[in-house]
Amino acid sequence: MRSGISTHLEFSVVLIEAVLLLGFAIPLWAKRVNQFPPGKEALVVHVVAQQFSFNYHLPGPDGQFGRREVSFVSNSNPLGIDPNDPAGKDDIATLGELHVPVNRPVIAELSSKDVIHDYFLPAMRIGGDAIPGSLIPIWFTPIKTGTYEVICAQLCGLGHYGMKGTLVVDTPQDYQTWLKERAELAGGAQSAPSPAPSPSPGK
Are 182 and 92 in contact (CB under 8 A)? Predict the structure, then answer.
């Protein structure tokens, strides 16, 4: 037969734990998740999912994203960055692999070109849905350099099993080197001459 003291003690412990959980832990966690770091402090990246890969769009040295338009989407311009927008001239677009600096907050704004995907970073314990027509922000702060896997955590079609990517957390110096390389590649692609139009038949 259980004593009354034991029953009251157990009830008191449960009550105290419930108060701590509901009164402190959950509100603090909600505040932590919903309170985004200041924009100037964070690196802002657009993550555009598609069957079956992740595209990344970063602003160039001017810190401004170029305008994106569906009509400009092509094999060489998968994000549809407007070539006539001055803000987009120095933008960086990558497929599958994103580099970020260590110890700097990253805000990833998620969207999709086709169906609903889920951008999941197991090592950062963060994920979020990428939905067509929506821009859904998530954030994290990488604290250790290395290479980490990105996966799609939402069934999105027959190739879903292979929808993976890579997050590379660099030292600040390595990150600047990567940025410079990507900017040079982007500049070379934009300065490449357009192919000459093929002659009309019969001329």
Answer: yes
